[in-house]
Amino acid sequence: MIARTRRWLxxxxxxxxxxxxxxxxxxxxxxxxxxxxxxxxxxxxxNFLCQRCGESIEEGLDLCLACGTKRQAVDRILxxxxxxxxxxxxxxxxxxxxxxxxxxxxxxxxxDAVRESGLMGRLDAVTYVPxxxxxxRRRGFNQAQVLARAITRATQLPLMSTLTKSRPTELQAGLPxxxxxxxxxxxxxxxxxxxxxxxxxDDIYTTGSTVEECARTLKRGGVESVVAIxxxxx
Length: 234
Ligand SMILES: [Zn+2]
Ligand SMILES: [Zn+2]
Prior knowledge:
By secondary structure, the protein is an alpha/beta fold. The chain is built from 9 helices and 6 strands. The structure holds zinc ion (2 copies).
């Protein structure tokens, strides 16, 4: 009975306020977030990508210069597409306009990417980049946590809060690469967890300092391997 009422309510709401594509605002035939045409046009990162971090590289190479020469705590980085354009529009719609339907939809696309990467069998749990209590209260939600929760729903992997953010940091966006690392040093604390191989979720990958600092902290706390995944790559 409750299920039937809920279905009736959903269809009535859909009839009164038909869902619109989050990108082109065209009316959608069903409870989707992005229309077929926009979905087909979502840009990808390119054909020749570093096997560790997904950075564009020359044909014939396996790793970018940074991954080939420097030891990093994140073992692998997956991103859906470039921040410039449609992926950035979707992230901003979710994060700043608080459109949770976009967030859940993006989480579903992240889950697809994990499956397509062939890494599913090598992951024990999903976790996310934490926010300080104050920042979380200010936004009302942690975008990385919403994405992570949607991934766990689609993959059946458990969701774990494995990190806390112990002090506020300056906004990474305004800082040069060198200062980003310093800004984050010691900002996270590991929460004891028994999972060895974790998927670390965030919304945007820029210089990689945030996921790298989180991965370093996780490994200090006993985690064996960290695959980072984000929606967009700046
Ligand atoms: Zn559209
Ligand atoms: Zn690389």
